[in-house]
Amino acid sequence: xxxIFTHPAVPLAVGLGLGCNIVPPRLLxxxxxxxxxxxxxxxxxxxxxxxxxxxGHRGISHSLSIAxxxxxxxxxxxxxxxxxxxxxxxxxxxxMASHGVLDALTTGGLGVAFFWPxxxxxxxxxxxxxxxxxxxxxxxxxxxxxxxxxxxxxxxxLPASLLAIALRFALHLARLHIARENCRP
Length: 185
Hints:
This protein is mainly alpha-helical.
């Protein structure tokens, strides 16, 4: 898995790229929390639940159906997020689903149960470029951890930053186009 520091890269990129008029601060914060939430399943190790179990690490908590259910639940609070139901659902779904996507790009583990409850199969993407992070805090500030952070900077934070810039640029172009259309006789 990527580190807890890197899973928020996707909601941050999308939220900052689209700006606070589209993704208000409360919604951005919720997206950041949901991008980390699936890894609470590491408690399964302490409960002696097998890694390969549906309830193990990278199991149901990483599935697209759970991301959809959580996003749907969150969209009921659209007013508190100062946004529309559709925007809240979309942003929260992308934020939580991105967790599994990043995990499926890592170099270790058993894969991600994207399609639970329809299938318990675990998947990786063909290109596994992100160095897998050790689970726990024992490995902080070790050479391996620094290698993981370097990998995350290259394969997650750099593309996320480019996404944020591209979204900002696209919004700027859209505003210019609307302004031109409004100036026509």
